[in-house]
């Protein structure tokens, strides 16, 4: 059975580019949620003695933002590990050919 090496090589390259683009998208989302966390900190600071609803929403924004930042950070970490595995697999397939 013969394997079409051009298709395999092209598929690996497309997969690597796609996953790197998705990691960049996750990094953008992580920065957006860090901005949201910053807004929560500002709400806590400015409304700690004035308005309980803004103070509570600031705490909620901080907690939710930090949890999402950690979750997206873990997704970035595992995505980078996956990209290196795909690149290593591509190199091993390329050496066999």
Q: Cα distance, first to last residue?
A: 14 Å
Helix share bin? over 70%
Biggest sheet architecture: none
The helix/strand series, from N terminus to C terminus, equals HH
How would you describe the shape?
rod-shaped
Task: Average the pLDDT over all residues and give the rounded result.
Answer: 87
Rg over CA atoms: 21 Å
- How many strands in all? 0
Helix and strand composition category: mainly alpha
Compute the number of helices: 2
Query: What ranges have pLDDT less than 50 throughout 5 or more consecutive residues?
Result: none
Give the number of domains.
1
Strand % is under 5%
Described by its quaternary structure, the protein is: single chain
Transmembrane segments: 29-47, 53-77
Protein name: PTS system, fructose-and mannose-inducible putative EII component
Keywords: Membrane, Transmembrane, Transmembrane helix
Secondary-structure map:
Layout: H1 5-46, H2 52-96
Helix pairs in contact: 1-2
Q: Summed up, what is this model?
A:
Keywords: Membrane, Transmembrane, Transmembrane helix. The chain crosses the membrane at residues 29-47, 53-77. With 97 residues, this protein is mainly alpha-helical.
What does this entry look like structurally?
Helices cover 90% and strands 0% of the residues. By secondary structure, the protein is an all-alpha fold. It has one domain. Helix 1 runs antiparallel to helix 2 (52-96). The chain starts with a helix and ends with a helix. Keywords: Membrane, Transmembrane, Transmembrane helix.
Q: What keyword list fits this structure?
A:
2 helices; rod-shaped
């Amino acid at each position: 059975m013969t394997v079409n090496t051009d298709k395999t090589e092209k598929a690996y390259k497309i997969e690597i580019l796609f996953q790197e683009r998705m990691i960049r998208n996750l990094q953008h989302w992580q920065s957006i949620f860090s901005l949201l966390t910053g807004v929560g900190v500002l709400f806590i600071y400015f409304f700690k003695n004035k308005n309980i609803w803004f103070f509570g929403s600031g705490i909620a924004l901080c907690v939710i933002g930090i949890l999402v930042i950690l979750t997206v950070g873990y997704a970035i970490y595992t995505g980078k590990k996956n990209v290196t595995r795909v690149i290593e697999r591509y190199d091993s397939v390329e050496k066999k050919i």
